[in-house]
TrEMBL record, chain A:
It comes from the Bacteria. It is found in: Cell membrane. The lineage of its organism: Bacteria, Pseudomonadati, Pseudomonadota, Betaproteobacteria, Rhodocyclales. Residues 4-238 form the ABC transporter domain. Its main location: membrane. Keywords: Amino-acid transport, ATP-binding, Cell membrane, Membrane, Nucleotide-binding, Transport. One of its GO terms (cellular component) is plasma membrane. Pfam families: ABC_tran. One of its GO terms (molecular function) is ATP binding. This is L-glutamate ABC transporter ATP-binding protein/L-aspartate ABC transporter ATP-binding protein.
From TrEMBL, chain B:
It comes from the Bacteria. The keyword Cell membrane applies. It is a multi-pass membrane protein. This is L-glutamate ABC transporter membrane protein/L-aspartate ABC transporter membrane protein. Gene3D superfamilies: MetI-like. Belongs to the binding-protein-dependent transport system permease family. HisMQ subfamily. It is found in: Cell inner membrane; Cell membrane.
C-alpha cells in the first residue's frame, strides 16, 4: 500500500522549473533514499510532500489524502508527517523537554503531562535522557539532531522525511544520527531520506531515487542502483561520491 | 553675567500654591512617567502587531504595515502632537470633537496617543528585524510539526524575536520618556514644563534645569537597570548565533 504517492508533479520558482513531472511512490514501511547533485531539486521534492512547498501541477497523496487539495486540513496532515532538517531547527528558547512537548500540546491537543511523558520516552530512545533540562544551544550538533528526530517521532508520525540530516554535522557525529535512523528503518518506519551517505543507503534503503536538474532520473531498487545504474548521469554521480 | 545661585529655592512655595518647587517638579516627573509608560505600552502592543504583520506572506498586509511605519516614523513628533491636539478634533463630527476637546486631561491623552503611534512605528521596525533575523528553517520546522501561522509566531518566532531586540527596545523605552517632553507644547505639565515654570517664576534657571536633568537621568537609569534584569531573566542558555545575526544587520 503506498503511503506517499507522488504523481507527475511540476514546480516553478518564478520562471525557473525546479521539478519536472516527478513521479514516485513510497510504500508503507519502505525506506527511499533520494540523492543527486546540488540544486537538482531533492529538498524541493521532499518539501512538497508535506506542502512546505506548493506545486503547480500534479498531485501528491499521503495516506490517501491529497496534500495540495485546498480542502485538506494541512496542519493536521503535516502533524502526521515527521520532518528532520539539515540544521536541526530545534527552538532555541525552549528546553529540550519543551521542544519535545510543544507541538504535541499545541497541535495534537495533548495535555502537558502526557506530552512530556511521550517526549521523554523518545528522548530516552535516542539516548539523551540526561539532557532533558538543557537548551538546544548547550548540545552538540549530533545531539541536537537526535532530539529533532525524537521531536518528530513524538507526534506519532505515519512517515518521516529527512533532508540531509547529517550534512551539517562534524564527521564524528554523523554515525550517532545514522544509527538512530537505521534503527527507525528496521522498525518499519516509512522514510524518505535525502542524503549522500551511501553507506546508509546500502544498509537500509529499499529504493534509491536519483535526481538531476529537477527530474527523477532513476528510481531503482538499491541493488540495481549500486550495481548497474541505468543512466550515465547516475554513474558519474556515483563514481564521484564514492571517491569522496 | 551675574547669577544668584540659590539651591534653597526648591523648598520655597511655588506661586501656584500647589506646594514647594521641588514638589511641583516631582508632580511633573509623575506626569512624565505616566505619559511615557502609557505610550510605551501602547507602542509595544501596536508595534508588535504591525511589525508581525509586515513579515506575513500577504503582500497587501505587508504594504499596509510598511505605510503605517513610514507615516508615523517620518513625521516629526512635534507635528504629530499638534495634529492630534489641534487638527484631529476639528475633523471629527462636531459633537464628538467638542467632547474630545473637553475631556479632562486631554493634553495627557493626546500626548499618549501621539507618542504611542510614533514609538509604535519604531518598535514595529525592530520587531520585524527580530523576526527576519531568524532562520527560515524555524518557520519550516514549526509548520512541518503542524503549527498554524499564528502558533508559529506565538510559540516560535516572537519569543526569540523579542529576546533579540531587547537592546534596541531599551533605547526606544528611554526615547519615549525623553520625547514626552514635547507634550509641554500642548500644555501637559510634565517634568520639562515644570522646570520651565519654576524658572519663569523664580528666575533660578540653572537650579531648575539641573534638577530636571538629574530626574531624567535617574529615570533612564531605572529603565536601563530594569531592562538589563529582564535581559538576564529571559536569556537563553547556550544561545549566541542569532544575536550575532541581528548585530550584523545593524
Ligand atoms: N526559494 C527558492 N527560490 C528560487 N529558486 C529556488 C528556491 N529554492 C530552491 N530554488 C532552486 O531550485 C533548485 C532546486 O533546489 P533544491 O534546494 O531543491 O536543490 P537540492 O537538490 O536540495 O540541492 P542541495 O544538495 O544543494 O541541497 C535549485 O536550482 C535552486 O536554486
Ligand atoms: Mg537540499
Amino acid at each position: 500500500m503506498p503511503m506517499i504517492e507522488i504523481h507527475k508533479i511540476s514546480k516553478w520558482y518564478g520562471s525557473f522549473q525546479a521539478l519536472k513531472e516527478c513521479s514516485t511512490k513510497v510504500n508503507k514501511g519502505e525506506v527511499v533514499v533520494v540523492c543527486g547533485p546540488s540544486g537538482s531539486g531533492k529538498s524541493t521534492l521532499i518539501k512538497t510532500v508535506n506542502a512546505l512547498e506548493p506545486i503547480q501541477q500534479g498531485e501528491i497523496l499521503v495516506d490517501g489524502y491529497s496534500v495540495h487539495d485546498s480542502r485538506t486540513n494541512l496542519p493536521k496532515l503535516r502533524s502526521r508527517i515527521g520532518m528532520v532538517f539539515q540544521n536541526f531547527e530545534l527552538f532555541p528558547h525552549l528546553s529540550i523537554t519543551r521542544n519535545l512537548a510543544i507541538a504535541q500540546m499545541k497541535v495534537l491537543g495533548r495535555n502537558k503531562d502526557e506530552a512530556v511523558e511521550r517526549g521523554l520516552k523518545l528522548l530516552d530512545r535516542v539516548g539523551l535522557s540526561a539532557h532533558k533540562d538543557k537548551y538546544p544551544g548547550q548540545l552538540s550538533g549530533g545531539q541536537q539532531q537526535r532530539v529533532a528526530i525524537a521531536r518528530a517521532l513524538a507526534m506519532d508520525p505515519i512517515a518521516m522525511l529527512f533532508d540531509e540530516p547529517t550534512s551539517a554535522l562534524d564527521p564524528e557525529m554523523i554515525n550517532e544520527v545514522l544509527d538512530v535512523m537505521v534503527e527507525l528503518a528496521q522498525e518499519g518506519m516509512t522514510m524518505m531520506v535525502v542524503t549522500h551517505e551511501m553507506g546508509f543507503a546500502r544498509r537500509v534503503a529499499d529504493r534509491v531515487i536519483f535526481m538531476d536538474a529537477g527530474e527523477i532520473v532513476e528510481d531503482d531498487s538499491k541493488e540495481q542502483f549500486f550495481s548497474q545504474p541505468k543512466s550515465e548521469r547516475a554513474r558519474e554521480f556515483l563514481s564521484k561520491i564514492l571517491l569522496h | 553675567m551675574k547669577y544668584n545661585w540659590n539651591w534653597g529655592i526648591f523648598w520655597e512655595l511655588s506661586p501656584d500654591a500647589t506646594g514647594t518647587y521641588l514638589a511641583t517638579l516631582f508632580q511633573g516627573l509623575r506626569w512624565t512617567i505616566a505619559t511615557g509608560l502609557s505610550a510605551w505600552l501602547m507602542a509595544l502592543v501596536l508595534g508588535s502587531l504591525i511589525g508581525t504583520l509586515r513579515t506575513v506572506r500577504n503582500p497587501t498586509v505587508v504594504r499596509l504595515g510598511d505605510a503605517y511605519v513610514e507615516l508615523f516614523r517620518n513625521m516629526p513628533i512635534l507635528v504629530q502632537m499638534f495634529l492630534w491636539f489641534f487638527v484631529v478634533p476639528e475633523l471629527l463630527p462636531t459633537g464628538l470633537g467638542t467632547w474630545v476637546k473637553q475631556l479632562p486631561n486631554s493634553s495627557f491623552w493626546t500626548a499618549v496617543f501621539a507618542l504611542g503611534f510614533f514609538t509604535s512605528a519604531r518598535v514595529a521596525e525592530q520587531v520585524k528585524a527580530g523576526i527576519r533575523a531568524q532562520p527560515r528553517g524555524q518557520t519550516m520546522a514549526a509548520t512541518a510539526l503542524g503549527m498554524t501561522t499564528a502558533q508559529t509566531y506565538r510559540h516560535v518566532l516572537l519569543p526569540m524575536a523579542f529576546r533579540l531586540i531587547l537592546p534596541p527596545l531599551t533605547s526606544e523605552f528611554m526615547n519615549v520618556m525623553k520625547n514626552s517632553a514635547v507634550a509641554l507644547t500642548i500644555g501637559l505639565m510634565e517634568l520639562t514644563a515644570r522646570a520651565r515654570a519654576m524658572q519663569e517664576f523664580s528666575f533660578q534657571v540653572f537650579e531648575a534645569f539641573t534638577a530636571a536633568t538629574l530626574l531624567y537621568l535617574a529615570l533612564n537609569l531605572a529603565i536601563v537597570l530594569f531592562m538589563r534584569r529582564l535581559e538576564r531573566f529571559v536569556a537563553v542558555p547556550g544561545f549566541t548565533a542569532a544575536r550575532d545575526a541581528v548585530a550584523a544587520a545593524h
